[in-house]
Design a protein that fits this description.
Low-confidence stretches: none
Radius of gyration: 19 Å
Strand order of the largest sheet: 1-2-9-6-5-3-4
Mean pLDDT: 93
Order of helices and strands: EEHEEHEHEHEEEHHHHHHEEH
Strand content: 15-25%
Largest sheet: 7 strands, mixed
Number of strands: 11
Helix content: 40-55%
Structural class: alpha/beta
Bound molecules: nicotinamide-adenine-dinucleotide, zinc ion
């Protein structure tokens, strides 16, 4: 078992990584806690051994569940169960669950403690770490949310045994991002060590910039296009399209590499490095069939980072960094260089 610290202004918290780490969930709950609301999904086949009374609140599956209505449903379930400010919420599931549980915990009684037990690879290496919570609006992903740091996180790699292949791949997409942020090749390491490396990198970046005003933006590498691709489902259909988050990130990483190359920041060999890692995990490198470049550019201009025209996180000689004021023509041209999936 590995114990990693995340140091923050309000005090540190611990991330426990390893097979069976969920057994330590009780240690991470506040002492005052008499009752716990475990937020989870039907498809999450994981039981927790808790040191106090608990209720289970099941949220629907899928990105579509990440909406304000679900947060209201959660808070009402907490109230019916008599959860007080001294009690706690546990998020037991993938990123959809930890984003919802974290957000509901941040506003219920103006904030109760939350402990995350992420059960997907993606949530273990990313979503459950760092304190960003939130839900989607029809207008776009994660447009409403809060910063709410967990009291602790248990990344139990044993629960990944039941994870479907596609969800593994999706988590790998997020891990490729970390490869370009400096953790290097994870190839030879065991899964526990791989998760721990990603957690340590995210924790270090979050510690430097808890509220996402500078350094933390690098964690959005590959995400500007990824969020736009994910949002096209909302804009056009009123619901999420079926790209997994890590798949969208994989496509976004390839695009970010092509854009960085157009801007003279990296060379063709570095673009190939991106393609090789993405292909190596069986992840998509092409835009989904029917993706419209003008719509994607409009969505990217609405990105939360975009305070100064089109802003991207791009690789370059000094490593991955935010680049503001990128010309729309260059963005369109880089999109034009992307392959397109056949429908
Ligand atoms: N807050 C953040 O910093 C942050 C970072 C990255 C991603 N996210 C968010 O995370 C979400 C994606 O999370 P995700 O990829 O974990 O998807 P997800 O939460 O939808 O989980 C994927 C599927 O796996 C099932 N599942 C979960 N654990 C399982 C297990 N152990 N065995 C079998 N099935 C299991 C779930 O029920 C679901 O059907 C997105 O909404 C994204 O915006 C947030
Ligand atoms: Zn992500």
């Amino acid at each position: 078992m590995m114990r990693l610290g995340v140091s923050l202004a309000h005090g540190p918290y611990e991330v426990i990584v390893g097979r069976g780490a969920r057994a330590a969930v009780g240690e991470l709950l506040p002492q005052s806690c008499r009752r716990v609301a475990v937020v989870t999904q039907r498809a999450v086949p994981v039981e927790l051994d808790l040191p106090c009374e608990s209720i289970r609140v099941v949220v629907p599956d899928g990105e579509d569940a990440k909406r304000l209505q679900t947060v209201e449903d959660l808070c009402r379930a907490f109230a019916r169960a008599g959860l007080t400010r001294a009690d706690a919420v546990v998020g037991l599931g993938g990123g959809v669950v930890t984003d919802l549980a974290g957000f509901a915990a941040s506003i219920y009684h103006r904030g109760v403690a939350v402990v995350h037990v992420p059960t997907t690879l993606l949530a273990q290496v990313d979503a459950a770490i760092g304190g960003k919570t939130g839900v989607n609006l029809t207008e776009g992903k994660n447009l409403v949310g809060s910063f709410w740091q967990p009291a602790g996180v248990c990344c139990d790699t044993e629960v990944l045994d039941t994870l479907p292949e596609r969800e593994w791949r999706s988590g790998r997409g997020e891990m490729i991002k970390y490869a370009f942020l400096g953790i290097g090749d994870l190839g030879e390491l065991g899964i526990e060590e791989q998760v721990a490396r990603c957690v340590a990198l995210k924790a270090a970046v979050v510690s430097e910039d808890e509220r996402d005003t500078g350094r933390r933006m690098i964690l959005n590498y590959g995400h500007t296009l990824a969020h736009a691709l994910e949002a096209t489902g909302f804009a056009e259909l009123g619901r999420a399209n079926d790209l997994r988050h890590g798949e969208a990130v994989a496509i976004g990483l390839v695009f970010a590499a092509r854009l960085a190359r157009r801007l003279g920041r990296i060379d063709a060999a570095r673009v190939e490095d991106h393609l090789r890692l993405v292909r190596g995990q069986g992840l998509p490198t092409a835009l989904p069939a029917g993706a419209d470049a003008a719509t994607l550019v409009a969505l990217m201009a609405r990105d939360k980072k975009a305070t100064d025209g089109l802003t991207f996180v791009l690789d370059g000689a000094a490593g991955v960094e935010p680049v503001a004021g990128v010309a729309a023509d260059e963005v369109l041209a880089a999109l034009g260089e992307m392959e397109v999936s056949v429908a």
